[in-house]
Amino acid sequence: MDFNDSPDEAAYRAQVKAWLEANAPKTRAGDDDLEGGGSMAASKAWQAKKAAAGYAQITWPKEWGGSGGTPIQQVIFNQEEAGYPIPGNPFQIGLGMCVPTVMTFADDATKTRFVGPALRGEEIWCQLFSEPSGGSDVAAARTKALRAGDGSGDWLISGQKVWTTGAQFSDFGIVVCRTDPDAPKHQGLTMFWVDMRDPGIEVKPIHQMSGGSGFNEVFFTDVRVKDSQRLGAVDDGWKVSLVTLMNERLAVGGPSGAGWAQFLAVARAIPGLDGAPVLKDQAIREKLADWYVATEGLKHTRNRTMTALSRGQTPGPESSIGKVVSALQMQDLGNTAIEMLDQYGILNDPELAPLQAAFHWSLMFAPGLRIAGGTDEILKNIIAERVLGLPGDIRVDKDVAFKDMPTGR
Fold it and tell me: Which CATH number, 2.40.110.10, 3.90.550.10, 3.20.20.70, 3.40.50.150, labels domain 125-248?
């Protein structure tokens, strides 16, 4: 791996640094109306400013509002931007997953209508895949899309999606539906884009044990969509879904929550049962060593991806490693920290708990992260089969018509 910028990359980094120093916010805006805190107005203003300068989606073609740059240039901008108190990013799912799918499969009129507003932060998108009976098995979707039967060519969508991030403030979404129950589950799906303000769509936020409500249930009742809202061919929605899912793997694999370095700082300050700092405890030191090694492994895995991007190569399924390791580590670290804090461990209060209750948030959020973007088991299968070349799981329902698949007991 090459950890150094090439001359061109170094010049681009200097350009980005200069622009951010002149334009990035120096303090975080108030008015917490976004999940996790932050201001929607501030987020939209920052997105618009980046779009005007060509930094909103650097790798996108210039005709769609990007700068036609390289993936490593996007990485460089993200690295430098992270050093500023920028607003929250409610556009990540739309720009990282939904709109690229629209750009790949929609007609020119649809792309012209949606790409620019999404890039400028004027419209927000969500991804409607998971369902109560399907879990991480996207192909098990039961939400139906049937022809209206009135000669219009329109479709009527009915069903339920769940765990939809950001649906409560989204303007549009992409939804995968069952259009042919007589075909095997991967062959009878079709993708559409929908207007989230349609009266037939009801969004109900889910209150999470972390205190947030970023996920939602979404109910569809005879939502009429035109055939022009279809993305890809009829019954070929699985291929369309794969484009979205591969982008999702990259988007949710990064680190989040309080890390081992924050744990180390707290362990130095908190006394143990013998009055000495908890850091002197051998079991704690072993935990820290394990977390440090895992964190370094993740860092170098990301560096390997960055090197591939710098060389113009496409990273492979190994991107699934990031979330498997980081989500499990977040849960373990949060649990150990709460136990270490003794009586403070029950105080989920940003004003009283260390690091503004960051460990409490990590502990409560980590189980959801181990499901979002594919469960640990799904990602481990991807790593085993597509990275390590191990034999695939036996899939007994691969050629069974979806309507004939057993459900319940």
Answer: 2.40.110.10
